[in-house]
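Onboarding guide, step 5: your first structure request.
Type a short instruction followed by the sequence, for example:

Predict the 3D structure of this protein.
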Amino acid sequence: MDVSAAEIRKLVDRPVDDVPVTSVYLNTDGARFPKVTDYEARLDALLRDVRKIGEALDETQCDAVVADAEAISRWIRTEFDRGDVRGVGVFSSGGEILDTVQVALGVRNVARVSDRPYVVPLEALLGRSHHVALVIVERDKARILRYQLGRLETYSGITSDVHGQHKQGGWSAQRFERGVEHEVLHHFKDTAEVLFALHNEQAIDALVMAGTQTEVADFRKKLHPYLEKVVHGDPMSLPPNVGADDLRERLEQVEQQLVSSRRSALLERLAAAQGQAEKAARGLRHVLQAVNEKRVEVLFVVEGAGSPGYRSSSGALALHEAEAAAYGGEVEPVDDLIDEIIEEAVRSDAHIELFRDEVRLDGHPVVALLRF
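The system replies with structure tokens like these:
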């Protein structure tokens, strides 16, 4: 599966079955785990935890979880090809693999057994995911590369028939040079069209350009207005024969700037809503109310935060059993309300921002900006 809001929602919306879903995320980064046996040892530890969780369930569910552990182990060992993959997620139910995700970024090793797939690590990846395009412009050729979730690939290489400089002076040279200028501008137009085709294939979040100031300036005039809006920063200066690792590192920095800019803007909105209960909810109790009313526009969560609670058969979440019962229907305990809140936010197409600590959320594990 792709790491996208639509795919994550599809995973969360999977109908609940009689047996649970086992979710395993495994870091396979070759820099940390050079040998296959290194990350397989971590996998074995995660699957031991999964089997231990299964022992606390009824016989049917326990058998299903054990089958999940075997299926996940088999998939990693026989079907998974590491290549440039640094993080993998596997979802299994009843011993059948439901879906997998493979990314060129590391993930935290974690295993969960629950009614639905565990998607918090996917939301963390989604928060970092931007489609960044780099176009390296020259007068007679261009390279277009794309970067997303740690993976850099060449989209297109463009070479045009642009004549060299005229060696003689006079009127004929001027006419020749005007013809060359026309060829160069036509080359820039062709390159801009290829770039716009990429944008139509998948919207570009940031466009980085590299080349001389003059060539980039002339090329930029040919960009579609949609692309002009996402041009990022000044033209990048690249050394001759720049390597893929250097380009990847530079585009990672661009992506981090996009993440920081987005978070700053959202946190400013949150600060402006201070004291306005109709615009923001702070703390678990108030966020639960907003989630139950499907009013969450942006959910801010401290990654790893958790709290037990209850769910009514009507779907409402609550901190206490009596509060859940007030919504009507039967009440069942849930292991982690915050995971449930995240799932509900995914279903309602809310944007989710994950933080490593509570400092930027004024000590709260969850905060939300509200729709209305």
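Each response can be followed by summary notes, for example: The chain has a mean pLDDT of 91.
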